[in-house]
Amino acid sequence: MILIGDDSLLAAPAAPRWRCSQGKPCVPTRPEVEYELHATKELLPRAPFEKNPELFRTSDQGQRTPDANCCVHSERALEIICENALAIAKVLRPTTGRFF
Length: 100
Hints:
Helix content: 10-25%
Strand order of the largest sheet: 1-2
Number of strands: 2
Order of helices and strands: EEHH
Distance between the termini: 23 Å
Strand content: 5-15%
């Protein structure tokens, strides 16, 4: 089950630009692209909260809440996060070879 919420994360890379040096021919270049994002809501979407509250953390008052992170003791929540992290990593490919 892959649940990615925001398609804007999947935008295409920028078009080539041209770099010219004095006395040398212009050559096409592309900007380097890296992705760094806070993706908890994409990795574990909030929609399943009503049917599966056990995927989400417990508040200080002892109530399940979808307001922040997952329940780290929920094996299924961690599986969903891993599946979505792999799906995002396949689409958001940095050109620098660095992953955050």
